[in-house]
Amino acid sequence: MQYDEVMVRYGELSTKGKNKKSFINKLVQNVKFALHDFDELKIHGGRDRMHLTLNGADSEVVLERLKPIFGIQNFSPVMRLERDMEQVKKTAVAMVQELYTEGKTFKISTRRSDHEFELDTNDINQLLGAEVLKHVEGITVQVKKPDIDLRVEIRKEGFFLSSQTILGAGGLPVGSSGKGMLMLSGGIDSPVAGYLTMKRGVEVEAVHFHSPPYTSPRALQKAKDLTSKLAAFVGSVQFIEVPFTEIQEEIKKSIPEGYLMTVTRRMMMRITDRIREERRGLAIINGESLGQVASQTMHSMIAINDVTTTPVIRPVVSMDKNEIIEIAQKIDTFELSIQPFEDCCTIFAPPAPKTKPDVEKTRKYEARLDVEGLIQRAMEGLVISKIKVGDTLEEQQKEAFSDLL
Ligand code: ATP
Ligand code: MG
Q1: Which of 215, 279, 376, 379 has most Cβ atoms within 10 angstroms of its Cβ?
Q2: Closest ligand 1 atom to the C-alpha of 289?
Q3: Residues 144-198: pLDDT tens digits?
Q4: Residue 75 three-state SS
Q5: What residues bind ATP, as annotated (predicted)?
Q6: Does the C-beta of 345 come closer than 6 Å to ligand 1?
């Protein structure tokens, strides 16, 4: 069915008091961005709801695009009619018919904000109910838990009919809580950490460390592909590549094996913090999960976190691997993450890193390095690109292949 409008209900937004207006503006902006290729759409963010006037745009596609946008509780495709009961009857029957399969039940729920209208809600429920029963063979009324709930709103500006409520992504509009730098490896955890932070309204930029020629171009591409999956929730994500080869070689040369991992992580943390500062981010996000590996004990966290006072957000810190994997599957990053391309840390990882690194010793060993010089050279070599939804290698190959057919 070609609908006239989509009505979007805000989630938690409505409880945000004074900030509400800026939250709504952000959400409108994100929705516009996700639908930027529909010139005919008109989007209006009201206090309690957002209205999308479709003007002929394909409602199926619009509904699909709304699903991943954070800050939306649910939404309904809507028919908007003139104040003409005959027209309403016909449309009500057509809408129920579209959803009807054998054995399904229905009800009509009318709300009337225009109290001057000659029929009251009961009259309308009965009138339309009778019409549906007459035209949809086999259907029955069920008031408590109907399969199809046709909602009718009688307003001054017209009559509005909707029969479906589609669950939105919840959370807060991305960007409404500021910006953070996501340390994105090629693993399972960090994309999930990125997703969970975006869900709370944070605009995320991905920082990825790579060490060519020890790490392959495929490993870099994998991190970009993961970023493209995260971009599905916002349209695009900035991807920042950090050249890390020199630093890893220097660390390998001068630092005792047991402290390689700790010092490597400290360098990553420092550089991410520098990038954050330059790009006006407020926090660092990573995929650390307590106890998962040697670098993720509380002692390690102390030693690594020693280099900054910037808040480090660890959304998966207390989750079990299975719980993280479940989310990775939901956001479609899992299959990519388990591809076997080694990232920079795995390659230089010693067989037995210290699980309880000592902060003083870490600082002492690290003093053997030209920390500032190494950071500066890495900063000069940053490569920044904007990654959009559907930018993954696999999708590009599919597209190239379809051109050949
Ligand atoms: P992940 O599944 O996210 O790779 P992991 O279990 O493999 O995590 P580690 O390799 O110890 O854990 O990494 C811990 C965190 O450090 C990662 O979640 C990520 O945030 C960050 N990190 C590790 N390697 C890189 C990298 N090459 N570039 C950017 N960040 C990284
Ligand atoms: Mg990893």
Answers
A1: 215
A2: 6
A3: 999 999 999 998 888 999 999 999 999 999 999 899 999 999 999 999 999 999 9
A4: strand
A5: 183-184, 208-209, 265, 287, 296
A6: yes
Q: Which ligand is nearest to the CA of 194?
A: 1
Determine whether the annotation assigns residue 85 to a binding site: no
Q: Is 287 part of any known ligand binding site?
A: yes
314 φψ region: left (φ > 0), alpha (ψ -120 to 50), beta (else): beta
Buried b (16+ CB within 10 A) or exposed e, 245-261: bebbebbeeebeebbbb
- Pair of tokens at residue 353: 């890193």
238 lines ligand 1 (CB under 6 A): no
**Which ligand 1 atom minimizes the distance to the CA of 285?**
20
Q: Which helix (H) or strand (E) holds 241?
A: strand 236-243
Q: pLDDT tens for residues 4-22?
A: 999 999 977 656 577 888 8
Q: Which residues have CB under 8 Å from 31's CB, separation 6+?
A: 8, 43, 50, 52, 66, 69
Binding site membership of 287 for ligand 1 (Cβ less than 6 Å): yes
